[in-house]
Amino acid sequence: MKLLFVFLAIISLSCGKQNTLSSEDYNWMPYHGTENLIFESPGTDSDSLHFIRKDTIMAHPDAAVGGVECEEVCVFSKNQVQRPTLIFFKVKKNREDKTELVFNLSTENAVFYRITPVNIDSLATPITFETSYKKYDDVFLIIPDEYAKDFYQRSDYVVRLYWSKSSGLIRYDRKDERYWELKAE
User: pTM of this prediction?
Assistant: First the structure.
């Protein structure tokens, strides 16, 4: 009987709880949802991302009825190699009310493999980074997590994303030392 009471108390306390994004959290989303990003690699090689929409949703990370609702803002992309539309990037609250970033880069020439989200509390101080086109002073380096090591043998494996908080993805590096930079905006 005591166990049933504890179980019901836990369910009633979590019912209707919403973890929403703050205005500071929203600052991590630099996109409006209709951008076309062109990335160039030294030489003549280029790649692109086409964003088709941005949505804010309330997600249910737990399958349990009455679980916590967590707010997410997502930008969806499509390129010539993607059959389905993918979430390229999202800012989300998790069930512990922590803010996380999710990256899903997939282009004709490169794929970023990261299974777990990036907790913004774990990010180091931003660095200044200059591409061939522009200098940025709010860049964070995002690397694959330990779970992505199984994909390392793939030729399209991306080892590093350069993420500007104000401009989004500005560069990505593949394991073979090829890289693509965001062309001037």
Answer: 0.85
